[in-house]
Hints:
Keywords: ATP-binding, Kinase, Membrane, Nucleotide-binding, Phosphoprotein, Transferase, Transmembrane, Transmembrane helix, Two-component regulatory system. By secondary structure, this protein is of the alpha+beta class. The protein folds into three domains: 2-298; 315-537, Beta-Lactamase (2-Layer Sandwich), CATH 3.30.450.40; 547-693, 2-Layer Sandwich (Heat Shock Protein 90).
Amino acid sequence: xxxxxxxxxIDGLHVAAAVGAILLVVRLLAxxxxxxxxMRRAALALGISAVWAIASAAMDPEAEVIQLLVSATYxxxxxxxxALFAHDERDKSLGPVKPVIFVxxxxxxxxxxxTFTRMSYAGDPAAQELLLNFAIMFRLLFCIGALVLVxxxxxxxxxxxxxxxxLPAAALAVLWLYDxxxxxxxxxxxxxxxxLIDLRSLAILASTAxxxxxxxxADKELRFKPxxxxxxxxxxxxxxxxxxxxMVLIAQAIAYAGRDxxxxxxxGFVIAATGIALAFLPSQHLRSWLRVTISKxxxxxxxxxxxxxxxxxxxxxxxxPQAAPLHERAVQAVADITDSPRGLLLTxxxxxxxxxxxxxxxxxxxxxxxxxSIAGARFFEESQFILDIDDLRNGRTxxxxxxxxxxxxxxxxxxxxxxxxxxYERLLAVVILSRPPVARLLDWEDFDLLRVIGRQLASxxxxxxxxxxxxxxxxxxxxxxxxxxxxxxxxxxxxxxSLLAGNAEKHAxxxxxxxxxxxxxxxxxDKLQALLNRLGRYxxxxxxxxxxxxxxxxxxxxxxxxxxxxxxxLLERDECAVNGDPEALEQxxxxxxxxxxxxxxxxxxxxxxxxxxxxxxxxxxxxxGSGMSPEFVRTKLFxxxxxxxxxxxxxxxxxxxxxxxxxxxxxxxxxxxxxxxRFIIVLPLSEAAKLMNTLKGNSNNNAxxx
Length: 706
């Protein structure tokens, strides 16, 4: 009865493995990407594995036909493994891969020869036993070599590709780890473990599930690059050898436990060993620790400078529509050196200090509008100092001013280091790196390499800034030419209309003609005059006389304009008066509120907050809309001719900032994609403005007397 139940369970596992593999084959071939090499080979390997599972349910698992099918699955899975290496022709940079593939193919071809030879000597038990021992030895060699390839496939991949490779590599590792344990026990026990052979469909089922999740994920880009040196591969082989040695010792101990319990203990050991290997081998912390340890004790220098330079050039030189913006790639180029998984880029802002420019894998970092003060930026520019933030946390603050590392960075435990990027002794940016998986103290070699990389990156950023400035100048020139044509046409139309008005006055005796012409000319003249006034306002930028006015009255007028369009909520406000042009401020606020409404959902309110902060009044326009990326804020928000509206000039945000600046204030923006945007207007109070004007006048008088 027990044997019948066991057979039913085993047959059920075979059928489940076959059905799972066939379903995944159908799903893969139905995808648009099925024409790719990886997809085709994965479907082939799964199809052959399904045939093996069905045949194993119907025949003796030790039959020669089943062994030939096992060899066929090995060839197919090995072919898939090589396709993962050969994606985008990356196998050309991995010299040892092809020889290992050829050796493993030869080993399995010999295995096929052993199978046919056993069929020829079916009546000779001695020959059968000898051939079986050789077959098991060759299978052990194949499994070890295949696991080494899987290991190097994963650890040699680029950081951004490991997420895509994790599950396919795990699928291959499960299959060959199971067989490694199976054939090791068979070799040590001098007999084939029937229970483990029966349960081999479990490994196929697990591999199918892992491969399915991995292949059907949205991330399809597989980009690889080789590991630093042969030492890391050698160390990987040593780890696999040690694992095999421990496994042999444990298997020998199992053999002494007694025949009755051996199958159950063998199966339990295989599951435990496979689970341990899959849990620790993909660990990023373990790999980082190994890399740091090997570099520290086996190499004279921490870095392979040739490999670092090639990687840096590849990261910065990446182009195309799918490539990340240059500022994000600049952060990645610095982070790759220290194995940092995330980073930020700060660049100078017009008001002084530095602001967030780009994020790389660090969306959760809460960065204020002024990320680094003027004093902090001056420190990095003058000292060219690479700051280890942990030194400040540990109290080592000699010669480092407090402004060098703002409080928000000290409170964020992920923040680890700050690297300045200087171009001709001028600070262009600061890169903030997050803590690597294995944190360490930065030493002289880190400082030297980061300093060189920083200068090289600064030259790229300066070149892009120059190109942007040149492009903006060209767009201004084009804008001026277009406006010149528009003004010319308007003047011609105005002259014609004036002439028509004069003729109409001559025919005043015709009542019908006179009434019609005067009405038409009056309307046309009004429209042209309004257009001229509107065009003439651009460029004035709030040039009206400044006077004290009630700030809340302006905010009320702005909110009233949107009463029937969108909900605008006024929060508690302080009574205050500021010095400036109320019409210009109203124009700027209308634009900011309209932008907030455009970015928000219809039922989501826009908030206007106003408060007095020392000698200044602060107005905040806050929305919960789609938000903006640092790249957009830096390159497009305050740049003319970048409009998201059809036919727009894209000068609204630029004009708003200039209007506020003309009143002695400033306009800041804080935005997070998917969360919302906060525009902050800071204006001096009227009393503070009078005091500043008085002090400025006294200073000018003293200068004249002197």
